[in-house]
Amino acid sequence: MSEAHEAGNLPPVRRLGQPTMLAYGFGAVAYGVKDFGFSTFLLFFFNQVIGLPASDVGLAILCALLLDALIDPLIGTLSDRTRSKWGRRHPWMYASAIPIAIGWLLLWNPPALANGPMLIWVFAFSVLVRSAVSAYEVPSQALSPELSADYDERTRIMAYRYLFGWAGGMAMLVASYGYFLAPHPGQETGLLNRESYIGFSICGAVAMMIAILVSALGTHHEIKHLPRPEIAPQSVGGHFRELGETVRNRAFLILMGAGICFYSAQGISFSLSNYLYTYVWGMRGADFMYLAGALFVGVIGAFVLAPRFAKRVGKPVAAMTTMTGAAILIAAPYLLRLAGLFPDPGSGVMLPLLFAIFTLNATCSVSSTILGASMMADVVEHSEMHTGRRSEGVFFAGAFFVQKCTTGIGIFASGWILSAVGFPEGAKPGQVPGATIDDLTIIFALLYLALGAGAALLYRFFPFGKAEHEARIEALSA
Fold first, then answer.
1. Is residue 83 helix, strand or coil?
2. Mind listing the domains of the chain with CATH numbers?
């Protein structure tokens, strides 16, 4: 190990042990559960179950997102500057577990309120949940470049993280559609039963709390290996000057732009998923179990593909290629349906073909997110060469804010889309006009293609690869 590593200025260049890798990755279950609930059910619950206008719910979530713009960078900066016997990240990780669980339970179990107070409830507890998730996820993501400085190992670390994140989301999908929100006898769908969301919220709260504590405890022994850069006292003005200097990093800005494009597309897709699955493809009951299986097979494919593909062609080219594939694959069945070239709902081949496409899409889209996160880890040393500071918390706060934009922008845009096409509230499957369904699919497919193309183009311009990173690590070590 180099002198710089001994001094605690750089993370070691190493391959992590399997127990550490599993514990670190398992913490992402918390974000997977939260993201699945927010992206898939929050708009649907308050619109179709509680009865609030979709555009008003979208606006309330967007306002909560604007407040996040202040909270995430603050947590990232405070995490970077935290000094304790438990290091910089773990105090935040431990402290977030209980507030996340409490906020989640309250969000999904509102009292009987008029529309105005109910919108305030949505806003207030969305802020609480988001802030608590930030207090865990920003320090936890910032831990990833600290665990190893190895270029390829960072992709492997992120592959585990996204595998568990998606596993958490898929497990909640199965539990939600298969048990908590399953239709009661005589019903076509159980998604409209308000009482069913009580068990849904309890399960999510417990799962998130357990995932956070297991991850924090399972990585606690790594604290002694993590970087311990010296932090000089800083005035408020000096702090903001340093923050501005840090976030002007070109590589960081490219990844932020790509993230805004892709995660916004993904957020719209997730927010509209129940509408698309139920009203476009006519899915019922067990179909959602098969859907969860198909998506998770795609995630496993990304876990295998992303590290190997990046090692062969480099992270930027791999991210650009997989992002392009994801955009084409998600839009294809909707555009083919409009052209009369896709099997009709009820056809024996429609669902298997659709699920096969969704599997390939999941492999491509998750691969692109793994690679984007791995490149963000490499930006830490790229910035350190120019500023002399390690700012993991600031960079991953920015990345995490973009991820949370998927929910806020996605719900807001989805609410606008549903209002624009005149989608009826409390609609039953089979009773929505065909023209409304067509308008919904046209807007969704074209918007996703445009945003996906923007993300792929930005990945193409990421400014460095493995050789530059390794030279930078050697220079910093010396």
1. coil
2. 3-224+238-477 (1.20.1250.20)
